[in-house]
Design goal:
By secondary structure, this protein is α/β, with parallel strands linked by helices. Helix content is about 25%, strand content about 30%.
């Protein structure tokens, strides 16, 4: 049988199509606290994930015996990182960390041949701040990522419980009725004047914001 050869141009086209099929997501590392290093926020999926690892206890008789302890230590280290990240983002107080972290789940785990463990521990935004569904999606040209943005309409404020962010692209499915907002000098998202009657329904909601461009 002959070998099928693909031209360089065809390979470029196939690569571009594969990349275009991948959903665009906004991810950012948490910075500012040393204990929070290795923590990433997926602003599109609405999750916070900490990576941590633990070496095997060499006193154990073998890798299989050492693995459970390594997994416990890795999870404990990841919980410390998540707690630090929550405090850095202003999402929680230290007295509540334990309650919030009880919702954290291992989203990925790697077992080392020597009994060591590396794992990824994740929290959903809904675990940190339970919320009702937002009444309407929002869209804006550019804005920084905020966990609980303040909205303003008709001189009245409402704070969302949480926000997720998606690119304002056809593939992301931005609704036609998404409200176009702007950011004022206080960082509030200002709704159109005609939407003043719905401002109360945004309080405590989980809003979806479509961005033309994400700020650093």
């Amino acid at each position: 049988m002959g070998v099928v050869r693909r031209s360089p141009i065809l390979l470029l086209v196939l690569t571009a199509l594969a990349q275009a099929a991948e959903p665009v997501v906004f991810k950012r590392a948490v910075a500012g606290v040393e204990a929070a290093s290795g923590v990433e926020i997926n602003w599109s999926a609405g999750s916070i994930t900490a990576q941590a690892g633990a070496a095997a206890d060499i006193r154990m008789p073998g890798p299989n015996a050492a693995r459970p302890g390594a997994e416990r230590r890795a999870r404990a280290a990841a919980e410390v990182k998540l707690a630090a990240a929550l405090r850095e983002l202003g999402l929680d107080k230290s007295s509540k960390d334990k309650t919030v972290l009880e919702h954290a789940a291992v989203s990925r785990i790697e077992y080392q041949s020597n009994g060591g463990v590396v794992l990824w521990l994740s929290l959903r935004f809904s675990d940190v701040a339970p919320a009702k569904a937002g009444p309407r999606s929002l869209k804006i040209a550019s804005a920084p990522f905020e966990f609980a943005p303040v909205l303003l309409a008709g001189g009245k404020e409402a704070r969302a419980a949480s926000a997720t962010y998606l690119p304002n692209l056809p593939a992301a499915g931005c609704p036609k009725d998404a409200l176009l907002v702007r950011r004022d000098d206080k960082g509030r998202l200002v709704l159109p004047a005609a939407s003043a009657d719905v401002i109360d329904s945004f309080a405590g909601s989980a809003v979806v914001i479509y961005l033309e461009k994400a700020q650093p």
